[in-house]
């Protein structure tokens, strides 16, 4: 059995574009949660920095992540925010066993 892969994706909106970025990111949540390999998918905003958004996700395997990146809702979101982000970092994490 493959291990669950967790993703922490941090995106910072360029100054003045927070609302547009938030709208585009929110639009991706429901579709992503409905994907077969999605275990968890949640969008957060940094309390101390409202221009910083963080996705915390859990996926069944790497194949599910790759499929996610081909969906219409993901591609629409990625295209909408591409020029509106000052920073983007995506971490793929595997939990270490005890």
TrEMBL record:
It holds the Pfam family ABM. Residues 5-93 form the ABM domain. The keyword Oxidoreductase applies. GO terms for molecular function: monooxygenase activity. Gene3D superfamilies: 3.30.70.100. InterPro entries: ABM_dom, AI-2_Isomerase_LsrG, Dimeric_a/b-barrel. This is Antibiotic biosynthesis monooxygenase. It comes from Pseudomonas saxonica. Keywords: Monooxygenase, Oxidoreductase.
